[in-house]
Amino acid sequence: MVFTIASLGAWFAVVLLAYLLRGRFFATFAAVILGMHTLSSSALASSELVVSTAWIAGLAIYLQAMTYLHFATLVRPRMRSLWWRGLVSVPASFFVAAVFLAAPWAIAESLGLALPGLWIPIVGAFLGLLQSLWTREQVIELHLEDGVDAGPLAPRPQAVKAGGAAKSTEALTIIQITDPHLGPFMSERRLRRICARAVARAPDLIVLTGDFLTMESQRDPEVLLRALAPLRAFRGRVFACLGNHDYEALELVRRALKAAEIELLVDRQVLVSTPHGSFQIIGFDHVFRDREAHLREVCERLVRRPGTRRIALLHDPGAFDGLPPDTADLVLSGHTHGGQVGLVSLGLGWTVLRSLSSIPDHGLWAKGRDRLYIHRGTGHYGFPLRLGVPAEQSVVRLYFG
């Protein structure tokens, strides 16, 4: 009972603080998310696993306190230090995810039933925490099957190998960085290492397909600039497009890309020479309305050069279906975080996103003669953790024909 009363009081305090200092929209968001968490965690606090084990009860109290503290600090968001992320932000994210996954157990407890196996969502959230903090390098080989009509939109096979070797005399090599979402799980230092490693791999191209920031990083004018700085050494071969979250701090994103000498392609294209020939790189803007008409207008204006391969950067793979046929040899997207929750780690393609919508979520897809590759994301945002869908840090080897 004390746990519940204290939690309700903390919930009210955070919502009131959010309303007074940040406005109605964020206060409503905090009220809904924290309200659901408060009800569910209060029900779970009376479970036998928590009540009968002192150290588990103490840990639950600590994690609950960190959850409210984390949301309270989002009223004045900024990038936090390593110790703060380690003691507050990351534990809070873990606990919110664990409580969400334990919703069936919370419902049972509220009905006076003791559902066994409460450890299952806790272990699941812990595994998700590990996946959110660490990424394994891969080499992904894509064979584009020139001229093959694949029929309706559907996933296609791809070869995945462990390791990070980028050299290939037969394939165009591309490193894609997308959805890093600088925040609790993607520090400036971590993203800087990812960028430096991409340069060290010496691919033919490096592309960035949007969504660089989170609520915590949108007010710091320097953090993204410093994180992307290693890419300056690869100038002339690094290209970017914008994602939906970039419009929340557009000038900050533009300034950081310019400082790193990354060419931002907003509804325009460039011609770049590689050891495998010349390529047109076209970058589409992220628009929220009339996307199909917008994409059609851009393609009509930016003519595809005869006899030249073209690669398109399109943040949202949901817009792939609206592209005119033969827009590019390959479209590179992000946005979905690979589905973020699913069974990809077990070698299966299923994700929650795939079951709830028709939006392509990860990997290689085809529609007719057009091909789309969706990166699982360098970071994540939204649901607190990844679960069964690891982040991606890969070198793409692109084979034509």
Give a topology summary.
Blueprint: H1 2-21, H2 24-44, H3 48-51, H4 54-73, H5 82-101, H6 103-110, H7 119-133, E1 137-143, E2 154-155, E3 159-162, E4 172-177, H8 188-200, E5 205-208, H9 223-228, E6 238-240, H10 250-259, E7 263-264, E8 268-274, E9 277-283, H11 291-301, E10 309-313, E11 330-333, H12 352-356, E12 363-367, E13 370-374, E14 393-399
Parallel strand pairs: 1-14, 4-5, 5-6, 6-7, 9-10, 10-11, 11-13
Antiparallel strand pairs: 1-3, 2-12, 4-14, 8-9, 12-13
Written description of the protein model:
The protein is α/β, with parallel strands linked by helices and 401 residues long. The chain has helices spanning 2-21, 24-44, 48-51, 54-73, 82-101, 103-110, 119-133, 188-200, 223-228, 250-259, 291-301, 352-356, and strands at residues 137-143, 154-155, 159-162, 172-177, 205-208, 238-240, 263-264, 268-274, 277-283, 309-313, 330-333, 363-367, 370-374, 393-399. The strands form 2 sheets. The chain has a 7-stranded mixed β-sheet with strand order 3-1-14-4-5-6-7, covered by helices on one side. Strands 2-12-13-11-10-9-8 form a 7-stranded mixed β-sheet, with no helix packed on it. The protein is globular. The relative contact order is 0.13.
Instruction: Tally the helices.
Output: 12
CATH C-level category of the largest domain:
Alpha Beta
How many domains in all?
2
Mean pLDDT: 94
- The ordered H/E elements are HHHHHHHEEEEHEHEHEEEHEEHEEE
CATH architecture classification of the largest domain: 4-Layer Sandwich
Major sheet description? 7 strands, mixed
> What structural class do the secondary elements suggest?
alpha/beta
Low-confidence stretches: none
What is the terminal-to-terminal distance?
Answer: 67 Å
Rg (C-alpha, Å): 23 Å
CATH topology of the largest domain: Purple Acid Phosphatase, chain A, domain 2
Give the fraction of residues assigned to helices: 25-40%
Apparent shape: globular
The main sheet orders its strands as 3-1-14-4-5-6-7
> What is the beta-strand fraction?
15-25%
Total strand segments: 14
